[in-house]
Amino acid sequence: MATKTHNERAWWFVLPVVLLVAFNAVVPLMTVVNYSVQESFSQGVWFWSGVEWFEETLNSSRFQAALGRQLLFTGIILAIEIPLGIAIALTMPKTGPWVPVCLVLMALPLLIPWNVVGAMWNIFALPDIGLLGYTVNALGIDYDYTQQPLSAWITVIAMDVWHWTSLVVLLAYAGLASIPDAYYQAAKIDGAGRWAVFRHIELPKMNRVLTIAILLRFMDSFMIYTEPFVLTGGGPGNSTTFLSIDLVKKALGEFDLGPAAAMSLIYFLITLLVSWLFYTLMTRQEEG
Amino acid sequence: MARITLDSLRHSYAPNPKGAGDYALKEIDLDWQDGGAYALLGPSGCGKSTLLNIVSGLVTPSEGRILFDGEDVTNLPPDQRNIAQVFQFPVIYDTMTVYDNLAFPLRNRGVARDAVDARVREIATMLELDDTLGRRAAGLTPDAKQKISMGRGLVRDDVNVIMFDEPLTVIDPHLKWKLRSKLKELHHRVRATMIYVTHDQTEALTFADRVVVMDDGIVVQIGTPVELFERPAHTFVGHFIGSPGMNVIPCSIDNGQAIVAGMSVATENVATATSGRTEIGVRPEFVTLASEGVPARIIRVADTGRHRIMEAEIAGAKVHAVVGDGINIPEGTAHLAFAPDMTRIYDDGWLIGGTR
C-alpha cells in the first residue's frame, strides 16, 4: 500500500490546462510582444523596430500623465475604501437576525455589472436631471461632472467607493468573525481600551484578509476601464483618462499597434511589480 | 489577593428559567480562602466554566451574589474586578514581543515605565521566559504561550484571583506535567488565590489543595485530594475520581446494616434512615480476595504493569479489585472482602452521615 507509483502518464492530465492557458494567455501575450517590437504598415508589412516603442511610450507626456492619474486614483480609492471597509465591518453585528440582512445589503453593489454601475452614476449625477447632481446644485454647490475635472474625479471616486467598499467590508468581516471570544475577554481582563483591542487584536487578526483586500482593490482599480468609460468617457478633456482608457484610445481609436502593444506591456509589468511588492512586504511583515 | 464568596448563586442561560433543568448552575454556596489553590473538577457540561465566567465577570449570574473580601462585585465588569484568566487556548497578542505582552496589562493601567520594566523582568524570570523576552510572541510553542498568558496575570500585584480554564488542553503530554509543577511552584511563591478548572482528575488532584467537584450544576463535594479519594461524599465523586473508579454495589438495608447478595457487609457508617436507592461504595484498592465473604463471579483480569485489575460480578453489579503481585486469582467464582473502614453506605447517591 505504501509503494508510490511513479507514472509519466500524469503529464497527460496537465496537458488540457497547459493548452488552455497557452491559448488564452501565452499566445495573446506573445502576440502583443510581437507587435511591440515592430512597425506595422498596411497589407501585412512589418519592420523590426526594437525597443523604440517602449522608449517612446515611457518618454511620452501623454503616457506619464495617464500613469499619474492612474496612480492618484488608485491611491485615493485605497485610502478611502480600506479604512472605510474596516470601519463598516467593525460596526456590523456579530450575531443575531441582522447579520444576514447586513451581509446581503453589503453584497448588493458587488452584484451589479460594471457598465450598469457606470450608467447608473452617469444619470444619477447629471446636474440637470440626476438626483445627486440636481440636489448638490440645489444646495448651492457648483457641480457638473461633464464640465469640471474636479467634479468628474469626485464622481468617479464616489462611484468606485460605492461599488467596491463592500468587498473590503466582507473580507474584513470574515477576518473579524474568525477571532475567538477569548481574545476579547482577555483584553477586557487586561484592561485594554477600544483602540488597543483594535490595534493589538482585531487588526493583526485581519492582516491576511486585508492583504488580499488591498491586492484585489489595487489590481482592480489600477485596471479600471468600464465604469469611468461609461461615466465620463475619460473626460472632461483628458482629466479622467486612466491608463486602460488611454490604451484603448491608442490601440483601437488610433490603431497604433506598436506603441499600444509597448504600452500594454509596460502597464502589465507595472501592475505585476506593484502587486508583487505589496504581497512580499505584507507577508514579510507577518512573518517577521 | 482576596477571599471569594459565592452566595446562593444560580445561573440560567434561558431568559425565563422554569424548572431546575433550565439552570446551568443550580445552587452554589462556596468560600474560597485567600491564597488557596483550588480546582474545579467535573465532566463537560457540569457548569464549571459558567461558574468561572461568573467569578471573572464575563457572565452575570441570574441569582445570587459574588463577594471579594466581603465586597459585592456581582455587577462589576471584568476589568474592575482585578482578576486574571488563562484560557483553554493560548491568548497572546500576536504582533507584540513577549516583553510587550507581559507589560500590556500594566501599561493599560498607566503604571510607570520603570515599574513596568522591573515587574516584567521579575515575572519573566519566574516563568523562565527571560531568553524570549525580545521575541515575537506569535512564533512560540503553545506551552510558552500559556506561560505568557499566565504571566499577564502575575505581573499585576493587585490581582484578586488567577483563574485557569483547562489551560493544558493544547499542551503536549510530556510538557503538561512540567507546566503543572511550574504552576504549583508559582502558587507557593506568589501565594495568589488560584482557581483551576479541569475535567482531568490528575490535573485537579496534583494542582489543588482543595478540589471542588461539580456535577450537573451543583457542587457535589469540596475536599482535599485525600478526602475525595478516601471518603467520597457522593457515588459520583467516587466514580469520577480514581482509575478505575469506586465500586458502587446495590444493597439492601437490615437494621442499619448493608446486605449484599445475602451477606452482611461491615461498613464505616450506619444507615440510620434511608429514603431511596441504597448502595455500598468501596474503592478497588480496598477489595481483596478472601476465603469467605461476598460471592463473586470473576470475569477477567487486566494487567496494568504496576498491578492487576480484576473485574468481577456480584449480583449483576460490576466490581473491580486491585490485586497485588503474588496473589493467585482463581477462575470462576471467588469470595471478596471489603475493608470495613473504607466501605460506606450511600442513600440515593449521597453518603449517609456525610456532610452535604
Major sheet attributes of chain A: 2 strands, antiparallel
Could you name the CATH class of the largest domain in chain B?
Answer: Alpha Beta
Shape of chain A: globular
Instruction: Return the average pLDDT of chain A rounded to an integer.
Output: 86
- CATH top level label of chain A: Mainly Alpha
How would you describe this structure to a colleague?
The complex is a heterodimer of chains A (288) and B (356). Chain A is mainly alpha-helical and 288 residues long. Chain A is built from twelve helices and two strands; from the N terminus they run αββααααααααααα. Chain A has one domain (62-287): Orthogonal Bundle (MetI-like fold), CATH 1.10.3720.10. Chain A has helices spanning 10-36, 52-59, 61-91, 98-107, 114-124, 131-138, 149-177, 181-189, 194-222, 226-231, 243-253, 257-287; strands at 38-41, 45-48. A two-stranded antiparallel sheet of chain A has the order 1-2. In chain A, α7 crosses α9 (194-222). Chain B is elongated, with a radius of gyration of 24 Å. Helices cover 24% and strands 33% of the residues of chain B. Chain B has a six-stranded mixed beta sheet with strand order 6-7-8-3-9-10, sandwiched between helices. In chain B, strands 16-20-17-18-19 form a five-stranded antiparallel beta sheet, with no helix packed on it. In chain B, strands 2-1-4-5 form a four-stranded antiparallel beta sheet, covered by helices on one side. Classes of the chains: A mainly alpha (288), B alpha+beta (356). Chain A binds chain B through residues 180, 182-183, 185-186, 188-193, 196, 200-201, 204-205, 288, and chain B through 56, 58, 77-79, 83-85, 87-89, 91, 93-96, 104-105, 108-109, 136, 149, 152.
